């Protein structure tokens, strides 16, 4: 059955998957959502015998119904290849009673690789299908990981250019070095003087600038997005939750049909929304545990039904989660409002105007699958130390937030359901924070000394992504004010 995509903010004509992927954001500022969530058409037992690539096809074919089998398999095979340092793509590691789904084995050692390695291929295929002649300009805001993963995915891809904005003092040293050393004539990286929400809001503003779109079209360009607002990013993330369940089943860790819980460290809400979609496809997921850091806007939302970004923005050791406007939450709001675009638009208008909105009692019922909590900086560091001391397994700061929140959930509920924790980044991406959590003595070491020490104590080889940037020269040293973002885009494109 064909899946079409509607905007969360209007009842205009639905579009096909390839059109939604190409546009990234709807013309009315809304996000594209499937008109229904398709059910898995293979049994869990059948899925348990499949490779990652095969599972990915079985999930994506149900959402991207205007792609042929050959087109989709071609995209999948180009994405999930030797760029990943393990054939299984997303290994499951059991540690202290939970299963950590390692989503960081791609070329930039963060979970964003799982979707951003396929998005360029989905986009180019979509452009061909829709007879697009314009060059596609990927415009992205990043809180640290999306930027490098998108740059790596699109660098050198014919017919595309990519512009990444990141908060100049809001990412880890390794994250910044990964971005500013990115090669490729079609890549452009800019540090803004502001936080991630400023960058994200600036990008959305540029997207909805009709005059600029017209000007660009005249010069042979059109925008698309690599942020998780693009449905071509979100759907590939659904695949790894299905794969995780299939792996647990194939390894005899669970029985067919047995319920599991899923914990996700959450910033922009895309990764946990993907788990919600997997559950609605028929995957036996019980609770979706939403883990926040000290920027606990989502925790407060799940507790009160009020989303309020009017608060202090906290810079933490888990910077990819330092977000106060969780863009993908809009897709969930639209759904729990009964797919009512008018109601959703009213709430989103309140968010951009007053900085907050409150959902109805009826809508709160739609949140029953979710549990929200947060971990403070101290709790996050303590969780890294606890797991390392108990079994030698080293978590990055984001996964540690999830692990600490999982501990709170079990303590609070007594729920002993088997649980998968999304492990979203390699500890090598946040070495200083990770090593300081294990022992304060490490703070005296240099960044790359810490890398080698982490490799030694965790008994894990230094990832290629880190080795590459040890001596790589800085290619991008651009900075700008938030209100200069549009000007900077035009300069890069020569318009």
Characteristics:
495 residues; alpha/beta; Rossmann fold; 5-stranded parallel beta sheet; 45% helix; globular
- What's the overall average pLDDT, rounded? 95
What is the overall shape?
globular
E-strand count: 15
Q: Briefly, what CATH class of the domain at 92-109 and 232-469?
A: Alpha Beta
Largest sheet: 6 strands, mixed
What is the percent of helical residues?
40-55%
CATH topology of the domain at 92-109 and 232-469, which one? Rossmann fold
Q: Report strand order across the widest sheet.
A: 3-4-14-9-10-13
CATH architecture of the domain at 92-109 and 232-469: 3-Layer(aba) Sandwich
Q: pLDDT under 50 segments (min length 5)?
A: none
| Annotation field: number of helices | 22
Classify the secondary structure makeup into a structural class: alpha/beta
Q: Which percent range describes the beta-strand content? A: 5-15%
How large is the radius of gyration? 21 Å
End-to-end distance: 43 Å
